[in-house]
Amino acid sequence: MSQSIQDFGIEKSLSNLGISAENKGVSSGGKYFANGDLLESYSPTDGKLIGKVTTANTADYDQVIETAKKAYVEFRQIPAPKRGELVRQFGLKLREYKDDLGKLVSYEMGKSFQEGLGEVQEMIDICDYAVGLSRQLHGYTMHSERPGHRMYEQYHPLGIIGIISAFNFPVAVWSWNTALAWICGNVTIWKPSEKAPLCGIACQNIITEVLKENNLPEGISTMIVGDHVIGDKMVNDKNVALISFTGSTKVGRIVGTNVAQRFGKSILELGGNNAIIFTENADLNMSIIGAVFGAVGTAGQRCTSTRRLIIHESIFEDVKNRLVKAYGQIKIGNPLDENNHVGPLIDQQAVQQYLDSIEKCKKEGGKFVVEGGVLEGENYESGCYVKPCIAEVENSYEIVQHETFAPILYIMKYKTLDEAIAMQNDVPQGLSSAIMTTDMRQAELFLSQNGSDCGIANVNIGTSGAEIGGAFGGEKETGGGRESGSDVWKYYMRRQTNTINYTDSLPLAQGIKFDL
Ligand code: UN1
To answer: Is-annotated flag, keyword Oxidoreductase (predicted)?
Structure first.
């Protein structure tokens, strides 16, 4: 019996979040406006139109920049702990809207409701983190080589921070950037994914409430739904001090180059090709759960999704059989229904890429031990539901070197741990990695300078599901950026070194004499 989407309360959530059938996609200065083309947002869950959004044209963009510039002059003068208070209140509002926003994420993007809630939880966590940090934007003091001199460093805001985010984390990535950017005294301009624009409008509505309640200018947080023309404008605009871009390596290469060209700053979060090494000492019960969640969670559309399993030859058959059994139990369907593990891919284009990758893999010699395919019939009308699949491959296959945003898991054998680590590292991307082992020598080798070359390296945990407190990001073609925890806040500020002479003479550094 097919359940209608109303049974999951989506209409009510949309109305609570201020989403209408027709929406304006630009919010700045306390009002919504937009004069560009019309964008329609369809749900991959049931193929239905959720709402329409008028996107920005270039004149709208210019207006957004002007509003943001004005707001910045005001906002940077508010003390950091007071800016933290804004973020604290935002975190409280997110708790109120958690259920509604989690549901919208699930409906518009297709991840399971549980994962939608998890994403909003990441937003709440980064707010809590940023509130504490707003009293800890520490700089060093140093001993000067000159007598009667004091030397220290301080951090100032950068200005306007541009955030261009992807469909797969349609709300959390914005908040990782904004929560830190705001406590640091910056204002933000967000271009949400064109594949999840209503999530953008919902978030903007929530922060607008907080800004209004505190009588703060809305230019602190502006949003602009637009296509690549607007993206290009942001990237090439010297008014935008830092661009935080999440997306493909292909687009990230262009973004990084263009921002560098104008000496802007960038944070790039690009593709991953994440592997888990299963050693002969792995605790298989927990390892299988980690691998399966990593591979099929968010239908394989996380940057951190597990794409490769590198398995010791002595346990290869056992692991393969357990995986086949586990995949047999996966329920695919409406992500709002909590009985299902896996929802749809984002759209038909993603389905085509999934099918093309399977085809390529087969051509290169891949042997599918769990077959893929597109689900059809009742409950799958959107045409975006696909079967998570597993292929036995060689790491060197061209398709294995490539990130496909879909639930395709590649498995391969190794003999020695050195060989496994070399395979793990032998891809262009460097985001996340993991080893499953109960042997501390193996674990420590994996974490050493001779081990994983990724930004994230885990032991006895899968590749996805990183916590807010750590720096998130990766090396090589993943782009080198870091977001959220640790000392990542420094990316959003400019460092200034100050030397103060409190004597009545002017000794020069390096012992230089300059007498007049
Ligand atoms: C992403 O896929 O772009 O580690 C981010 C995770 C999440 C973030 C993923 N915390 O899986």
So the answer is: yes
